[in-house]
């Protein structure tokens, strides 16, 4: 196994964390729950001078915080948005996150935002393009960028590299780190009819800084990454393997749709302890029922409006 670069290797193992969501703000600020760390969606806090910014400042005083973005668009053919990067850097200077992450994807082109995390062709040309942009982002932010494997629903005919091969080469060229979304691996492999254990066997584990867990929606013929229900048994089984191979990387539960009470999210997160201690479930399980509402992949578009609505209410008050 290739040793990770020094800066990546120095990043801490934070334990088990939760996404910082506005529906839980009051609970967190009044009870200060025993959670190891929080991950904040960068865009929800970059432009708000109201309550969201106040909340993340207070949370960062008590807990380790990580910033996780959805709009860097590292794979786009548009120029990097330098204004976005400067605002992200300013937020990072204020809350001192342990690291900053985003996705191996593109979110828009010609100035238009799709509000989704779209896959990139896995080719040498794409690798050259994204590696140059990662170098520039790291220069601006003054720290390694951590990139997440996306959930996908098809493979490009033009692909010449597997996703693990692409990520390994990207890390070697840029010294960036990786956020392994275990649910995304299961969703993408199911949709591509490939084996998630084979994916793990070729993944560059030495670069893994963080892992994500989440629920998905089973549509029978395909899976959709919805983050709106508990983690599926198959994903827990993969997590047990990922925990061993990542040497206990910081792990976070994402729940972004139909968000239940904080205690429910926290209880779901703590299930991870059983798998960290050697538990290993079957790779099969009963399909979770379809949600009553239409399944939305990569739930991104409603995150920012939710939080900003709270900010407007605060200003009116």
The string of secondary-structure elements, in order, is: HEHEHHEHEEEHEHEHHEEEHEHHH
Number of strands: 12
> Assembly state here?
single chain
Largest sheet: 8 strands, parallel, barrel
The radius of gyration over CA amounts to: 18 Å
Distance between the termini: 56 Å
**Secondary structure: helix percent:** 40-55%
Beta content comes to 15-25%
Can you put this structure into words, describing what you see?
The chain is α/β, with parallel strands linked by helices and 317 residues long. Helix content is 41%, strand content 16%. The protein has helices at 6-9, 25-31, 43-46, 51-62, 82-95, 124-141, 163-174, 182-192, 196-201, 233-245, 262-270, 272-276, 303-316, and strands at 16-19, 37-41, 65-68, 100-103, 106-109, 112-118, 145-148, 177-181, 208-213, 217-218, 223-224, 250-253. An eight-stranded parallel barrel has the order 1-2-3-4-7-8-9-12, surrounded by five helices. α6 packs across α7. The longest helix is centred in the middle third of the chain and has 18 residues, at 124-141. The chain is globular and about 50 Å long.
């Amino acid at each position: 196994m290739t040793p990770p670069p020094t800066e990546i290797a120095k990043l801490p193992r934070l334990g088990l964390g939760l996404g910082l969501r506005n529906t839980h703000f009051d609970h967190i600020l009044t009870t200060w729950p025993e959670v190891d760390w929080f991950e904040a969606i960068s865009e929800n806090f970059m432009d708000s001078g109201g309550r969201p910014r106040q909340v993340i400042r207070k949370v960062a005083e008590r807990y380790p915080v990580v910033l996780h973005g959805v709009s860097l668009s590292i794979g786009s053919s548009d120029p990097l948005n330098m204004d976005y990067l400067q605002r992200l850097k300013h937020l990072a200077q204020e809350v001192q996150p342990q690291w900053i992450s985003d996705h191996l994807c593109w979110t828009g082109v010609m100035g238009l935002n799709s509000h989704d995390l779209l896959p990139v062709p896995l080719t040498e040309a794409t690798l050259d393009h994204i590696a140059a942009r990662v170098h520039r982002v790291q220069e601006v932010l003054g720290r390694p960028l951590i990139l997440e494997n996306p959930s996908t629903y098809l493979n490009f005919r033009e692909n010449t590299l597997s996703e693990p091969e692409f990520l390994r080469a990207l890390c070697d060229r840029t010294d960036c780190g990786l956020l392994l979304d275990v649910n995304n691996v299961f969703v993408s492999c199911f949709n591509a009819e490939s084996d998630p254990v084979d994916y793990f066997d070729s993944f560059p584990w030495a670069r893994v800084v963080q892992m994500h867990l989440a629920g998905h929606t089973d549509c029978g013929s395909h899976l959709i990454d919805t983050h709106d229900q508990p983690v599926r048994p198959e994903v827990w089984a993969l997590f047990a393997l990922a925990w061993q191979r990542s040497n206990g990387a910081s792990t976070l539960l994402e729940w972004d749709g139909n968000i239940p009470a904080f205690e429910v999210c926290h209880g779901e997160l703590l299930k991870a302890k059983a798998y960290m201690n050697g538990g290993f479930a079957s790779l099969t399980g009963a399909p979770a029922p379809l949600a009553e509402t239409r399944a939305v992949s990569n739930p991104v578009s409603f995150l920012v409006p939710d939080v900003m609505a709270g900010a407007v209410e605060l200003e009116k008050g």
